[in-house]
Amino acid sequence: MSFSALHFRQALLPQGWAQEVRVLIADGAFSRIDVGVPPEAGDERYSIGVPGMPNLHCHAFQRGMAGLSETRGPSSDSFWTWREVMYRFLEALTPEDVEAIAALAYCEMLETGFTRVGEFHYLHHGPDGQPYDNIAEMAERIAAAANLTGIGLTLLPSLYVHGGFGGQNPDPGQRRFINSVDQFAKLHEASRAATESVEGSVVGIAPHSLRAVTPDELFAAIEIGGASPIHIHVAEQIKEVAACLAWSERRPVQWLLENMPVDTRWCFIHATHMTPDETAKLSYSGAVAGLCPLTEASLGDGTFNGATFAGAGGLYGVGSDSNILIGAADELRQLEYSQRLQYRQRNVMTTQEGASTGETLYRSALEGGARALGAASAIVVGNEANVVTLDVEHPSLIGRPAEQILDSWIFAAGSGGRANAVQDVWSRGQKVVANGRHIARDAIARRYGEAMRRVLSA
């Protein structure tokens, strides 16, 4: 049995900030939590402890192309022109490259406060579109990267059949993504086997989008997934909404709510462009809105109607998506700032007078991310022991009372390198980050560098 004891001067518990918190961890889970007690001999002592944040939406391989799409094209650039850059980038990726890139992305997630990742996994096949001899070859590489870094994994193998609404043929650039429903059933089963080595792993399904599956194929995917999480890209772009209307006379969110058994298993990724009626109905459905504010800003998607959705009781979480910049605080900050720009107000994502915006964002994303990824993320006995400690001597945290700690981290501390306020991180009870650096960072970064030099030279 693995065992450790941590003591925090203050820690964020479900009931609020608590003082003098002693936490016992056994076999990767919280086994005991005592409040208002002094540390004991042998305890590891820290000032500030918060639950690790779930990252509910990630395409790990895209970490390798961060910064490669910032050159103006001959006409107006958009998500759709960015997508062509992505297709060209992935043509050169081998399974070894994908594993190396994913390991760096997961390392950076842990260093900045994410302790579980939802890997929306659609890069399945070889460059010619032919399946590898092992149909779960790429899934095994994702699992290997999760094992190496220690991050919790919810693997979401994606069903991608078509290139547009109504069963249009896929583009050549999509050939590495494509499976029939029968192939997907085999991939899903093989993905379960591929992730058995990752402690606490969850396997869900990810029908890519209504562009990529027909209604019958979507129903089939839901049956394959059973009670597991269901993630789908939806209403990210105006062009996508217009194409869905032309196909079905319904907007994407509207169509899903009217035609699919949307419930607490579902996570609607982006859901950027919704009417007020769609926003309200999605909030009532129990589905989670999977927001990726940095990527949505990078791609020019638009702004999610966060204030209305949250005000109606909707659950949301955050993800790093294209991994142009990785950080739990960064995503939450961008979410709030996007609402400030939209409404030309401040402190928009909390409506309760006197409430901390940072704490509201953090607690909400913990709850929504946990539901979306099928794994709890609070400091509670029996939950996975995912803990992030913050540096009380960071310039932005010095002297802060408990109720301003998350505001100061999210809005003032920055992330990465010397600016990083994250001190140490435990994932499933294992200490994976010490003094702001992942314990295997040097080896992971070296392997990533070798992969990227090869890929970019190709």
UniProtKB/TrEMBL annotation:
InterPro entries: Amidohydro-rel, HutF, HutF-like_N, Metal-dep_hydrolase_composite, Metal_Hydrolase, Metallo-dep_hydrolases. The keyword Zinc applies. It is an enzyme of class 3 (hydrolase). Gene3D superfamilies: Metal-dependent hydrolases, Urease, subunit C, domain 1. Its cofactor is Zn(2+). The keyword Zinc applies. Residues 4-45 form the Formimidoylglutamate deiminase N-terminal domain. GO terms for molecular function: 8-oxoguanine deaminase activity; deaminase activity; metal ion binding. GO terms for cellular component: cytosol. Its EC number is 3.5.4.32. PANTHER family: AMIDOHYDROLASE-RELATED DOMAIN-CONTAINING PROTEIN, GUANINE DEAMINASE. This is 8-oxoguanine deaminase. It comes from Variibacter gotjawalensis. The lineage of its organism: Bacteria, Pseudomonadati, Pseudomonadota, Alphaproteobacteria, Hyphomicrobiales.
